Amino acid sequence: MPKLNGGEIIVESLKQENVDVIFGYPGGAVINLYDALYNSGLKHYLGRHEQGVVHAADGYARSSGKVGVCIATSGPGGTNMVTGLANAFMDSVPLVAFTGQVSTSMLGKDSFQEADITGISLPITKHNFLVTDVEELAKTIKEAFFIAKTGRPGPVLIDLAKDVTQKEAEFNYPSKINLPGYRPSFEGHRLQVNKAAKAINEAKRPLLYVGGGAIISGAEKEIKELVERAKIPITTTLMALGIYPEDRELALEMLGMHGTQYANRATLETDLVIAIGARFDDRVTGKLDEFIAQADIIQIDIDPAEIGKNLDVEIPIVGDVKDVLQEILPFIEEKENGEWQDRIRELKEKYPLRYNDDDDSEVIKPQYLMEEIDKYTNGNSTIVTEVGQHQMWAAQYHKYKKPRQFISSGGLGTMGFGLPAAIGAQIGQPDEQIILIAGDGSIQMNIQELGTIQTYNVPVKIIIFNNKYLGMVRQWQEMFFEKRYSSTKIPAPDFVKMGEAYGIWSKRVEKKSELSGAIREAMELKGPAILDVHIPEEENVYPMVPAGAGLKDMIGG
Amino acid sequence: MTHILSVSVLNKPGVLTRVAGLFSRRNFNIESLNVGKTENPEISRMTIVVRGDQKVLEQVTKQLHKLINVLKITELDKNAIVERDLILIRVKCTRKQRSEIIQIADTFRAQIVDVAPDSLMIEATGTEDKLEALTELLRDFGIAEFVRTGRVALSRGQAIK
Ligand SMILES: Cc1ncc(C[n+]2csc(CCOP(=O)(O)OP(=O)(O)O)c2C)c(N)n1
Ligand SMILES: [Mg+2]
User: Fold this and answer.
1) Domain-located, residue B161
2) A173: which of A16, A103, A345, A501 fits an S-S bond (Cβ 3.0–4.6 Å)?
3) What is the ipTM of this complex?
4) What is this enzyme's class at the first EC digit (chain B) (predicted)?
């Protein structure tokens, strides 16, 4: 068998894993790997900053359901990746990140561009490896992919001592995995499954509370079946928007801090909550001991550590959500739940999402802007967001219809995620229209990635909700700090000139009468486009549950 | 309440850091942590004493299980184990006090392992209570320094797999 060097072994291993897209940024410690990539047939996207590179791989993974792959050099390359890894870790996104490292003989000597990236990334990766022996390389890559995508997915980092990428070994991609300490369970426990089915059949006011785990597991069909057969209303977290079409009767959309009134109110009245791939995050539950205190809880999750972590549950089931639902469904009786359905209908009519708008005014309200985008695209585009008020309006004022249609940084709330993630999402879903909903503050955090859009002519449409503020923080200052706007007024460059400097069609929109025309223009264009839409400076996101309050103490809406 | 966990781990680089890091990151209280080789050269055994209620213990166990190199976790039943701790104590002593200290050591089945003009070093093994009682008695003479290994434990009768 011919020998390959470490760089070539990585390329061949990636091909074995069916990887065709890589995001990366070169440097001395990975120069051998980049040499192997040259003419390898793998498509490499050069970002403009390693944070952008990881977020792009993350957006790619979220939109395609495949493992995202990214590369950075040693030292600053690796440390620049840190936020991206933490972001992927919090939202359980499968990534394999390669970082260069100094040569084995130089390790631990504060060598040029040496940073202990396995140490640094230890608490923010599902697992990581330092490879110092080329014979271990293929096996390590195999294990990394397996760990990244199975069980509860997450980022895995492989740190490559430089000499490993140079040295040669016979290439033998292992067919088997030997990880005795890693055995995720997929099927639910029979007894628990029966108990859950019985509880669902007997409940009078059941409620589905669905999180990102359901999207990862691909359980949309099973969830639809459960909702419609037993007439169970469904509310989702930010991470699960679109798992069930939001325009249907039983859809209550998002719950929690900025959830709908009807979703939050339903949590106060339900007698049985079926939590699916959701982790009772504080942005969802509000004050924990008040959250669905009156109801029993069934919790289905692939990660045993999520069960009972925040809240005690009556019927825990460890397993892959899709598998477990398939086990439960045969026992679920068809039902009308008439009274409960009526009540849900009533809540939806009585407490709709609403905002003040004046038909005659030229002011563009952000909620209206979001509705216009939904209207223009017929609710069919994939929406990627940054973090802040615009993110919440994007979640609220757009009806999501299918999984992977909403891509956003949930657990970590990373400003600067959106722009690079939108690039990755577009590459992962080449046939979909990707729209980035950005804040004027967030987009400045990885604005350099406009260069990546330009280089590869990535046709994302960027809509900046420009309120000239770090709006979400300003809102808290308005509500809880007597409008003392400490450092939240944020200057921005002229986004139109900026876009044009990167060769991207860009337009400013300040009047409502010009909005729909501008959206059409941007969307019909073949390539990327930027709309800098000026919205009121002091609009707030409602409803809102103040941090630490119970869901019954919602304000506004 | 304290719990004793016996954790077998694969001997991979960084495994101790992973376990120790998990405890500090998740805000678990660790009383002692001890690592040593086992009969299998690829596997080490950690004996970890954690403080917390049943819920904390459950989270600790589940989170530990998520570490890829953790093979098996057993909570040891305090009534069915042999547990030991080893202490080395250097006690200040004048020539006159020597015999008294040696007598105390004898009562605890401890050994004198070093003698200097103004101090003695004592080695003792036993349960935590026993070592604490010994330390308490020696305190009167003045303890120059001491070091303890922390608890190690094994179940009686049958081996932990
Ligand atoms: C990296 C990072 N730094 C700080 C924050 C805190 N933060 C949350 S929202 C927000 C304001 C975002 O402003 P902008 O992007 O303009 O969105 P808006 O709220 O105005 O819609 C800030 C500063 C964060 N989430 N992420
Ligand atoms: Mg803003």
Assistant:
1) no
2) A16
3) 0.90
4) transferase
Question: Which SS3 state, helix, strand or coil, does residue B6 take?
Answer: strand
Residue B39 lies in a domain: yes
User: Rounded distance, CA A54 to CA A417, Å?
Assistant: 9
> Residues of A with CB below 8 A from B57's CB?
none
- For residue A549, the tally of other CB atoms under 10 A from its CB is 15
- For residues A80 and A72, is the Cβ–Cβ distance under 8 A? yes
SS3 B9: strand
Q: Is the Cβ of A41 closer than 8 Å to some Cβ of chain B? A: no
CA distances from A240 to A213, A254, A302 (A): 8, 9, 16
Number of domains in chain B: 2
- Do B37 and B62 lie in one domain? The reply is yes
Chain B within 8 Å of A119 (Cβ-Cβ)?
Answer: yes
Could A123 and B69 be called an inter-chain contact, meaning their C-beta atoms sit closer than 8 Å? no
pLDDT surpassing 90 at residue B159: no
Tell me whether the omega of the peptide bond preceding residue A543 falls within 30 degrees of 0, making it cis: yes
Nearest-Cα residue of chain A relative to residue B64: A305
DSSP state, residue A473: H
Residue A308 near chain B (CB below 8 Å): yes
Average pLDDT over residues A204-214: 98
pLDDT (0 to 100) of residue A2: 83
- Answer whether A414 contacts ligand 1 (Cβ < 6 A): yes
Helix residue spans in A20-136 (DSSP H)? 31-37, 50-64, 76-80, 82-90, 117-121
Buried b (16+ CB within 10 A) or exposed e, A74-92: bbebbbbbbbbbbbbbbbb
- B124/B68 same-domain check: no
State in Å: Cα A447 to ligand 2 middle. 14
From CA B140, how far away is CA B117, in angstroms rounded?
18
pLDDT at B158 over 90: no
Cβ atoms within 10 Å of A322's Cβ, excluding its own: 23
Token code pair at residue A489: 């007024």
What residues are paired with A46 via a beta bridge?
A24
What pLDDT score does A185 carry?
Answer: 81
Q: How far apart are CA A404 and CA A87, in angstroms?
A: 17
Count CB neighbours of B53 within 10 A.
9
Is this structure's pTM higher than 0.80? Answer: yes
**Helix runs in A417-540, H state only:** 418-428, 450-456, 471-480, 495-501, 512-524
B87 with B138, same domain: the answer is yes
Assign domain A190-350 to a CATH class.
Answer: alpha beta
Decide if B10 is inside a domain.
Answer: yes
